[in-house]
């Protein structure tokens, strides 16, 4: 077992929780979204989904979704691109690092609760159009333009609509908060092997401050969530082609707390 920089070492109480983490729970709600995708006009089926979302949000603050309509091929392509990017030498990755101007890009010194995370990330979003340098050569003034191609029939904010309905609100209640100037972004996380996993964490215990987080977990696992009903930390068992949904602090405190 190796050593790690003290900046990565978790508080002793939290180290104990990592070592003694309870077994993977079977009770984490798993919600099948087939009706939402295939039968959106089936009122009875949608009411059933709304009830499931309400219960999961109150008891857990988390749930998993399957049959969500996102092609598995797209996820696999994204995972492969992430592996290629994080597999590059550090000096290459740092060519697209965050700086004083942009909060997006590569970063490997993120802290949670004043403890450094054992991870590296790449944050990105895509404006339409997005202009980027054609190369990193200082004298190269050529610019490449990317476009964000949206599908002809947008799927809309379907999860947010279910959440709104579960709160007794109109389905479109949250639509106005997500527009061209909203703060949605994507993050690629990579957790390298750690020589002292009993001391450090990929990311420490925290709450998500946004409205909604959608997590894709690979077959390695490692994510733990804190069950709201009793405060226990539960390891989330990876389920192929399932997404983990986390209700963020913007919605959670006033909506689903007792």
Head-to-tail CA distance between termini: 44 Å
CATH class: Mainly Beta
Quaternary structure type: single chain
Residue stretches low in confidence (pLDDT < 50, at least 5 long) are 18-23
Could you tell me the number of beta strands?
Answer: 13
Compute the gyration radius: what is it?
Answer: 20 Å
How does the SSE layout of this entry go?
Blueprint lengths: L11 H8 L10 E3 L1 H5 L4 H17 L2 E5 L5 H15 L3 H4 L11 E3 L3 E2 L2 E2 L3 E5 L5 E4 L9 E4 L11 H9 L19 E5 L21 E5 L7 E3 L6 E3 L7 E5 L4 H4 L3
Parallel strand pairs: 1-2
Antiparallel strand pairs: 2-13, 3-6, 4-5, 6-9, 7-8, 10-13, 11-12
Explain how this protein is built.
- This is Fe2OG dioxygenase domain-containing protein.
- GO terms for molecular function: dioxygenase activity; metal ion binding.
- With 258 residues, the chain is an alpha+beta fold.
- The chain has one domain: B-lactam Antibiotic, Isopenicillin N Synthase, Chain (Jelly Rolls).
- It has helices spanning 12-19, 34-38, 43-59, 72-86, 90-93, 158-166, 252-255; strands at residues 30-32, 62-66, 105-107, 111-112, 115-116, 120-124, 130-133, 143-146, 186-190, 212-216, 224-226, 233-235, 243-247.
- The strands form 5 sheets. A 4-stranded mixed beta sheet has the order 1-2-13-10, with helices on one face. A 3-stranded antiparallel beta sheet has the order 3-6-9, with helices on one face. Strands 4-5 form a two-stranded antiparallel sheet.
- Strand 11 and strand 12 form a beta hairpin.
- Helix 3 crosses helix 6 (158-166).
- The longest helix has 17 residues, at 43-59.
- It is globular, with a radius of gyration of 20 Å.
């Amino acid at each position: 077992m190796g050593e790690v920089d003290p900046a990565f070492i978790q508080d002793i109480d939290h180290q104990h929780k990592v070592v003694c983490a309870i077994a993977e729970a079977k009770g984490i709600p798993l919600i099948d979204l087939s009706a939402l995708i295939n039968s959106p006009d089936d009122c009875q089926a949608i009411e059933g989904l709304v009830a499931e979302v309400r219960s999961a949000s109150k008891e857990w603050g988390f749930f998993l979704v399957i049959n969500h309509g996102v092609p598995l091929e797209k996820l696999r392509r994204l995972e492969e691109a992430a592996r290629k990017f994080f597999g590059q030498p550090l000096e290459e990755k740092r060519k697209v690092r965050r700086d004083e101007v942009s909060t997006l890009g590569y970063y490997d010194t993120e802290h949670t609760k004043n403890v450094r995370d054992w991870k590296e990330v790449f944050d990105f979003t895509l404006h339409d159009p997005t202009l980027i340098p054609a190369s990193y050569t200082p004298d190269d003034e050529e610019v490449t333009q990317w476009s964000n191609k949206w599908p002809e029939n947008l799927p809309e904010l379907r999860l947010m609509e279910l959440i709104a309905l579960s709160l007794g609100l109109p389905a479109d209640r949250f639509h106005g908060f997500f527009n061209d100037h909203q703060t949605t972004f994507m993050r690629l996380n990579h957790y390298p092997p750690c020589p002292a996993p009993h001391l450090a964490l990929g990311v420490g215990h925290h709450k998500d401050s946004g409205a909604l987080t959608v997590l894709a977990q690979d077959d390695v696992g490692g994510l733990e969530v804190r069950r709201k009903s009793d405060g226990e930390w539960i390891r989330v068992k990876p389920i192929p082609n399932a997404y983990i949904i986390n209700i963020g602090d913007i919605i959670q405190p006033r909506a689903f707390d007792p």
